Amino acid sequence: MRQRGKWILVSLLLVGLLIAVWGGYKAMTQSLHPKKPLIIYIPKSIDPSIEFWVVMQQGVMTAAKEFGADIRIMGAETEVDVEGQIRILDEAIATKPDAIMLAASDYIKLVPAATKVVNAGIPLIMVDSDVQGDLSRSFIATDNYEAGRKSARLLKEHVNPDEKIAIVSYIQGTGTSLDREKGVRDELEASGFTNINHTIFSDGQVQKSYEMTRDLLLKQPEIRGIVALNEPSTVGAGKAILNLGLQSKVSLIGFDNSNSEIRLIDRDVIQATVIQRPFNMGYLAVKTAVSVIKGQKVDKVLDTGSKVITKYNMYTNENQKLLFPFEDELPEK
């Protein structure tokens, strides 16, 4: 019996030793290869034809590789699908990620879902488009109000104060469209430009922008200037002007950049476009999210800036990098 008791004691000691060794091995492995934080990125749209979101995703994935984050992309097919984005955000919360990065499709309607993120204890990083209220840990975006004023200042170089102006926006109710339109109207009205049409909305679709702008120009041939507030709206408005042969009569100021916009600038259909830095937005959003997860202090707002591109400056080395961003062109912050 004594011999048997010794063997039992030795066996228990060996089992304890093995457990201790295994625990130490796991701890050492985790310290050498820590688990990557899971960040869910929810853009307004995953439509691959909209270059703005494609470039932002490049920035997201570049930063994820650099800062050691696991990125899961969840998004609606179109920017106008606000209810779809709300459902996706609810699904993201249920996943219990380490952080969520959101480009809100609607400034007001996304507030309840964004509040759920905060109440669940998940850090919320807003990118490109915010929601009402102080819900996010950080907001990374263009100063859209100032960018709207910038586009209006460009239009004033081509249109007289008494001439009629149209605004082609995209999604009614999204924070970026509200800020840009307000910037455009404030700048024009402050300079005595009061003959401004009611804004038309393209729903972020090139074809709808084309049809609505063409119809508007046929019904109101006195229009002499158009400000279009995002990439699809700009491309559609440009195609309408080109189709009607009005490029010498109607001046167009656009937003964002794409190959289609560059071609329209080259053909003198677009006089200028105000471009953002979507690569930087995506990169800085991930960098900020990782910092928040680590408990580090981050900036409440990061303005990624905007720049004017015309036919006369788009071929400079600096602007080529902005028009065609690459992974090695990383933001300074």
Automatic annotation (TrEMBL):
Keywords: Signal
Annotated ranges, domain Periplasmic binding protein: 49-297
One annotated Gene Ontology cellular component of this protein: cell envelope
Pfam families, sorted: Peripla_BP_4
One annotated GO molecular function: carbohydrate binding
Protein location: Cell envelope
Keyword Protein biosynthesis: no
Keyword Signal on entry: yes
Stored Gene3D superfamilies: 3.40.50.2300
PANTHER family: D-ALLOSE-BINDING PERIPLASMIC PROTEIN-RELATED
UniProt family annotation: Belongs to the bacterial solute-binding protein 2 family.
Stated name of the protein: Substrate-binding domain-containing protein
Organism: Paenibacillus dendrobii
Lineage of the species this protein comes from: Bacteria, Bacillati, Bacillota, Bacilli, Bacillales
